[in-house]
Amino acid sequence: MDPYTGGQYPSLPQSCLKTKTPVSVEHNVKPASPSNQPPRRPDFSTFFSTLELVDTSHTNNVHSTPIPGDISSVFRMLAEGYERMRQDQGPNGATHLQGDDHDNDSGHSRFLEGLIQTLLSEADTPPKEVNGVSDEFLAELERVPKKALKKDMSCPICNNPFLDDKYPLVVRLPCHKSHIFDLECIQPWLKLHPTCPLDRKNLVKKKEPPPPPPKDEEEEGDYDEMYA
Question: Is the dihedral of CA 56, 59, 61, 64 positive or negative?
Fold first, then answer.
C-alpha cells in the first residue's frame, strides 16, 4: 500500500520481472574459458619474504646476525620450488618427447636435480650468513631483448622457451654470453649464491684491500708527526 495515496502500488509488467540476460549471451560473446596451462614457474613470494629476514647483501639490514633456522628455510624453500619445476616436466622430470628433445629434457632434469641437492645440503648445514648478490647487481645484469631470442632458446632452470612468455624478461650472466635465464628463475638462486648455476663461476669480484702507501711517503708522514 502506498503510504501517500492509500492505494496499492502499481504492478510491474511481467517482462520487467524476467532475469536479466547476461551481456555475453545477449551479444553472442563466448565467455573466456579458464586456462588449463600451469604457471611458468612456482610462486616465490614466501621465499622472498623469508629472505628479507636473513639477507645481508645491503647495509640497511637490521638483522646482522640471522637465525640459522631462517637461513635453512630459504634454502629449503628454493629447493622445493625447483623440485616443482622438475616435476612439471613430466614423469622423472622429462616431458613426453622423442629423440633429441627427450635427451635435452632428461639433461635438464639432471641439471635441476643437482641444484636441488646443493640447496638441500645447504639447508641441512646452513652457512652463518647468506652470501648472495645484491639487488644492485641484479639490476645491472644485461637484459636480452626479445628480438634477440629464438624459438628454440629456453631457460636452463624452468626449461620453458623464452618466447612462450608474451613479455620475456631475460638476463645474461657475465660469465658466458650463452648463459641466459628468465630473471624470475635465476634471481632466487643468485640471492643465495654469487655463482652461475651452470659453471659455478663466481660472478662477484671480491674487493681487494687498498695497496699500502709508498715507503717514502710513510716515512715522511712519521717525520712530520714527530716535529708537529
Answer: positive
pTM higher than 0.90, yes or no? no
**Residue 207 C-alpha from the chain's centroid:** 27
Closest CA to 106 of 90, 93, 87: 93
pLDDT of residue 121: 96
- The CB density around residue 1, as the number of other CB atoms within 10 Å, is 8
Listing DSSP states for 151-215 in one string gives TT-B-TTT--BGGGSSS--EEE-TT-TT-EEEHHHHHHHHHH-SB-TTT--B-SPPPPPPPPPPH
63: which 3 cell numbers?
638483522
3-state secondary structure of 47: helix
Which residue in the block uniquely carries the three cell numbers 536479466? Answer: 20
Q: What count of residues does the chain have?
A: 228
pLDDT in tens, 100-127: 444 556 778 889 999 999 999 999 999 9
Are 79 and 44 in contact, with CB atoms under 8 Å apart?
A: no
Residue 149 makes CB contacts below 8 A (sequence gap 6+) with 162, 163, 168, 170
Place of cell 628433445: 101
Other beta carbons within 10 Å of 82: 24
Q: Is the pLDDT of residue 128 over 50?
A: yes
